[in-house]
User: What shape does this take?
Amino acid sequence: MVKVAVIDSGVNPNHPHVSGVVGGLRISADGTSLSSDCLDYIGHGTAVAGAICEKAPGAEIYALKVFDRMLTTSVDAILRAIELAIEEDCKVINLSLGTTNMGHQDRFERVVELAGSREVALVAAYRMSGQISLPGALPPVIAVEGDPECPRETFRVSGSNGSEDSPVHFIASTYPRQIPGVPREWNLNGISFAVANMTGFVARAMQKHAEFSVSSLKRFLEEQVGTRMIPI
Assistant: This one.
């Protein structure tokens, strides 16, 4: 089993698309206080978790709630959530969020370095609203971009390994799991779900190769481009 932290609006453990919720916490906006209320009231985190569970059946979801009734939070809360995910022995961290304020780069670099030292895979958006974002732009984060035309059961790679001008990032569908009877265009969509879909592939690969380091995992994923659901 792979334990996946979903840093988002919480998770509804009773949703049919979600399985294996093993716990969670709510983090205050200033990152200083915690509570056990990790229930999702707006659906975003549940849709993210559903996409992950689709790709990686059996994944253990750990909900770290930084959003409540609106999709707004603080960098303090995000950084604290990443630290807590590492403390809770999560092996993959989904960040369907981020900031384009590069003034926070030093703070994100420290927590990304901590994750790297524990071989924890962070998956985050490379760009948000057309701008490079944190922590997705930092190595060794698994950086993701979205493409609405990309089939949900696969992903692509852009960039060159080792190139600072064009670093490797993964491209995945911007749609979550479809809701029966609801047209796709009416469902949630965007970079959040490209990140979630890619997190599912990362967790699926880790289920197959638990011995991999994060760098080995990224190389393996690059080799799987075009594969429809990595065999596990």
Q: What stands out?
A: The domain at 3-223 is CATH 3.40.50.200 (Rossmann fold). Residues 49 and 69 are 18 Å apart (CA to CA).
